[in-house]
Amino acid sequence: MSPRPMFSRKEAACAPWVRTRLRTAPGAACALGLLVLLTAFLAAAFPRAVDRYEDEGLRHDLAAAAPRRSMLEVSSPAPGLEVPQAAREKAVREPSVASVQRKLLAGLPDPLRADTGQSAYGLRTTNPIPAGEPWFPRPYGIDPDLTYTTQSALPDHSVLREGTWPTVHGEVTSATDEVEAAVTEETAKALRIRAGATVSVPATKGGRFTVRITGIVAPLRPEAAYWSAEPLLRTPSLVAKPTKTEPRYYWTAALLLPPDAAPVLLATTGQPEVYWRIMPDVARLTAPDVPLLRSSVASLEGGPGLLNVRAAVGETATVTTDLDEIVSAYDGMRQAIRPVVTVAAVGIGAVAVIVLLMTGGLIAGRRHNELALLRARGGSLRSIGGRLLAETAVTAVPAAALGLLLAVLVTGGTRLGPSAVGAAAVGALVCTALPVRTVLLHRRPQLQSGREDLVSVRPSRRRTVAELTLLVLAVGAVVALRRRGTGGEGGTDLLVSAAPVLVALIASLVLVRLYPLPLRLALRSVARLRGAVGFLALARAGRSSASGTLPLLALLVALTTAAFGGSVLAGVADARDTAAVLATGADARISGQADSAPLPDGLVRTVSGTDGVQEVARVQIEYGVSLPSPEHGFEDARGATLIGVDPVTYARLARSTGIGTFTADRLKYSGPPTPKGTMPSQDRVLPVLASPSVAERLGDRPRDLQSMAGDFKVRVTGTVAHTPAVSDTSFMIVDAASLTHRQTTALLLTGDRLDAKALRAAAHHAGKDFTVQLRSEARAAYVDTPMQVGAERIYTAAIAAGAGYALLAVLLSLLRTAPERTTLLARLRTMGIGTRQGGRLLGFEAMPQALLAAAGGLLVGRATIALLAPGVDLVHLALSTGPGAGLLYNAPLRADPWSMVLPALGVIVLTAAVAGVQAWWTGRRGSITELRAGDSR
Asked: Nearest 5°: CA angle at 222, between 220 and 225?
C-alpha cells in the first residue's frame, strides 16, 4: 500500500478566502467591528432607554399621586332593614368582608395588580356623629364630629404606644352595649383622649352604646396608602362651619374599632357603608400597558368590570378612582415628549447610516483594483459578492450581537424586540453595503476608470431629479412641522421628525453645487502668487472625487443634529428660568399671606443690609380692585391687581429680569403737587402701565378708580404683558408716591449669592407670617420626572454622538485619500519639498472642504433652528411641577452657540491635525518606501 500523501491536491489548491482576508488586514477588520459595535449599541440602546424612562415615568406618576386618587375604592351601603338582622350582621363581619376582598383581588382585570400590603377593607360611618363628652376640646363651643371605622389589619400598620389593642369579647351584635377602639397619637393629643376614656354613641332606636378607648397607636408609615387614603384615620382636622359672619371651627376625628365589632355600627345614625380599598401595585406596570390600563379602569367604573364587582359585592356597589386621570395626564406628557425625542433619533440614525456607507465606500475604494482584477479574470458578480458578504459578516454579525448584549446589560427596559431589530439593521446594512456597491460598480469588467473631479463633473439628469424630489420633501416636512408642531394629533410623523435631516441634506447638495465656484476663484488668485504649495493644494482640492458629497452630508447632518439637540436643552433651561422668574419676580421675594400684610420698615432696612442684596424694590399690591364699566361691550365683575412701585427701582428690576420692561418716565405724575397736611384730590389723573386686557377695559381717557390705596383717576400710558410683582395677566402699575395710603406688602430683591438663612431669619423676626421665596429654590422645584430626565439624557447623547460621528466622517474622508497624499508627498520630496511645506500642502488641500463643512454646519444649524422653532414646543419637556409651571404657555427652541461652534471647530482642528500627522509620518518613512516601480498611484 502506498503511503498517504501529506497534502492533498484539494487542500493545497487555495486557502480559505475569509481567513486570508482577515489575516491580510486585521486592523481594518477590527476597526470595522468596533464601528459596528458602537453603532449597534446605540441602535439597540435607544428603544430600551425610551422604554425605561417611559416605564419609570408611569410608575413615578402613580406613586407620586395621592393614595386617595390612585386607589380603587369599592363601596356599598350596609344591608338595609329589609334584610334579616342576623344576615345584616353576618354580611359586615370580618370573614364575610375579607372573602369579598379576596374575590375582588382575584377578579382585577389585566394589567391591574393589587398591593395587598396597603389594601384594606372594613365598615365605616359616612355621616359623622357628634360627641357630647365634656372633656372634648371645643374651640367655638361646637361638639366634635367622630367617624367610626373597622379598618382591617391595624396591628400590621401601627405600633402600640399606650394601653392595649382593641378586641371584641364574645360575638358583637347591633345590640352590644360596649366595644373597644383605638386612636392615633395625633388624634389623642388634639382631642385630649387618654387610654380608658369612653365615648357614648347614640343608636337609631333611641338607645346608646359605649366605645372605650383602650389603646393609642402610632402609624408605622403615615404616608403609606393604608393611612393616607383617608387622612382622618391618622390626623384629626379642624373644620370650618359656614356662618354668615366669621367661620366657627370644630374638630373631626376617627376612632378605629376591631373588624369583628362592625355589627355594632349598624345601630348608629352614621349611615354605615362597607368599603374595600385596593392599592394598585405599580412595580410591574410598563408604558405599553397604558391603553389596556385605561380600558380596565373604565370597565371597572362603568362597564363589564363593574358588573363583575357587583356580582361579588352586591347590586349597589360603586367603584371610584382617579387612576384614569393620572394615566391620561401621563399619556399626554408622553405623547408630547415622544415626537421631540424622535427628531434626535432620526438625526443620529441618519448620521450613523451615512458613516456606515462611507465605511463601506472606503473599503470598496481601497480594494477597487483587486475586485476589478477578479472581475476581469472571469469572477462572477454572485461569487465576488458572496465572498465579500461572508468576510464582512464574520466581523459585523458578532460585533452587532455584542452591541445588543451591551445595550441590554447597560440600559433598562423590558422589550427586547425593538433593540434586536435595531442591532440587526445595523449588521445587515454593514454586511450588504460592500457587496451591493461592488456589484453596482463592477457589473462590467473595467481596466481603468476615468477621473471624476469635483470641479469638472456635471450633475446628471437623474441626480437633478433626485435633488428636486428631496427639496420638495424637505419643504413639506418643514411646513408640516411649523404648522402642526411636534405634538400634532395622529402620533409621531417620521417625515416631520426628519425635517432637520432633510434640511441638512438639501444644504449639502446646494453646497456641493456651489463649492467649485469659490474654489476656481481662489485658484486663479493663488496662481498669480509665488510658490507652488498654495496652487498645488487648491488644484488637488478641486481634483478631489465627486463622491465627496457623502462626507459633506454626514458632517452637515451630524452638526445639525448636535445643534438641534443643544437648542432643545437650551430651550428647556430658558423655560425653567423664565418660569422661576415669573413665580418669584426677582432673585428673592419677601411677602406676607396673599401679599396683603404690610411689611415693617425695620424689615426693609435689615434686608437691604443682608449679604448679597444689591437692590430692594418695595411694592404695594392690592388684588381685586374693581374696574370701571367698559366703554363698549358687556359689564363683567372681573377685577384687576393694583401695583404701587417706585418707578426707577422697578424699571431696573424689570430690565434685569426681562419681564415687562418699561421706562420710568411713563409712570411720572405731571400734575400739581399735593400740599402738606391735605388729602390728595380724587380728580388727579395718575399714569398707569396696564396689561393688555386692563388697557382695553380702561380705554384712552381718564377713568375713575376706587381702591384701598386711595381714590383717583387713571390714564393708560403703556402696556406690558407681564410684570415681576405678580403672575396675573390683569394688573395696573402706578407710582406708589402718588397713592393716598402707602404701604409695602412685598419686597423684590436682586443680588448674587443671597443669604437665604439670613433673609428668613429677618423675615421671621419681623413676623411669623412673612415668607421668603428664592428664585434659585423655585428653579430647583422643577423636579425632573423620569420621563423628562430620560429625554434630556437622550438629547445629551445626541449631541455627543453627533459630534463623534462628525469627527469620524472627517477621519473616513481623509483616510479615503490618504494613500494618494502619501504618494504625492513622497514624489514631491524627491523634488526638494520639505516636511513643513508638505504639511502645509496637505493642510491647504484638506481645509477647503473642512471649512465648507464647518461653515455650512453653522449656517444650516442656525437656519434649521429658526425654521423649526415655531413648531417645537418644549413646555412638557421643561415643566411638569413647581411654581410658575402653569404660567408659561410655550417654550421655543433657543440656539446654543456652544453646541454649534464646538463640533464645527472640532472638524477643522481634526482635519489640520490629521494632515500634520500624515506629513510627519510620511517624512519619517522616507521616499523609497512609498515609491515602487510600476505603482499606479
From this structure: 105
The whole-number pLDDT of residue 10 equals 46
Cα distances (Å, whole numbers) of residue 613 to 145, 507, 609, 723, 750: 50, 50, 7, 21, 6
Query: Distance of alpha carbon 4 from its chain centroid, rounded?
Result: 74
Q: Which residue from 370, 449, 365, 507 is spatially nearest to 814, judged by alpha carbons?
A: 365
Q: What is the pLDDT of residues 237-278, one digit of tens each?
A: 988 876 656 678 889 999 999 999 999 998 888 899 999 999
Q: Identify the residue whose cell numbers are 354580611.
A: 91
Specify the pLDDT at position 581: 84
Give the C-alpha separation, 430 to 396, whole Å.
Answer: 7
From 553, 562, 625, select the one nearest 904 (Cα to Cα). Answer: 562
Identify the residue with better confidence: 590 or 824: 590
Question: Is the Cβ–Cβ distance between 299 and 321 less than 8 Å?
Answer: no
Residue 600: which of 580, 618, 612, 574 has the closest Cα?
A: 618
Q: What angle do CA 775, 777, 780 make, to 5 degrees?
A: 110
Q: How far apart are CA 230 and CA 75, in angstroms?
A: 14
Give the separation between CA 618 and CA 604, rounded to whole angstroms.
8
Rounded to whole angstroms, how far apart are CA atoms 918 and 842? 8
Residue ranges of E strands in 193-311: 198-202, 208-219, 237-241, 248-256, 272-278
d(CA 552, CA 851): 11
**Whole-number pLDDT of residue 933:** 42
pTM of the model: 0.76
**763: nearest Cα among 743, 781, 746:** 746
What does the pLDDT look like over 700-727, one tens digit per residue? 888 888 888 888 888 888 888 888 888 8
Residue type, 608: S
* Helix (H) or strand (E) segment spanning residue 180: strand 178-184
CA distance 744 to 852: 60
678 to each of 70, 366, 674, 682, 797, how far by Cα in Å? Answer: 62, 97, 7, 12, 69
Any idea which residue has 509620518 for its cell? 921
List C-alpha distances in Å: 315 to 99, 277, 301, 303, 321: 17, 18, 14, 14, 19
Here the cell at position 241 is 362651619
Cα 844 versus chain centre, distance: 45
Cα separation of 534 and 519, whole Å? 12
329 Ramachandran zone, left/alpha/beta (phi>0; psi -120 to 50): alpha
DSSP 280: B
Instruction: Copy the grid coordinates of residue 768.
Output: 411669623
Helices 323-366 + 290-302 axis angle, to 10: 160
Query: From CA 933, how far away is CA 352, in angstroms rounded?
Result: 40
Conformation bin of residue 4: beta by default, left when phi > 0, alpha when psi is -120 to 50: beta
Helices (H) and strands (E) in the chain, counts: 31, 21
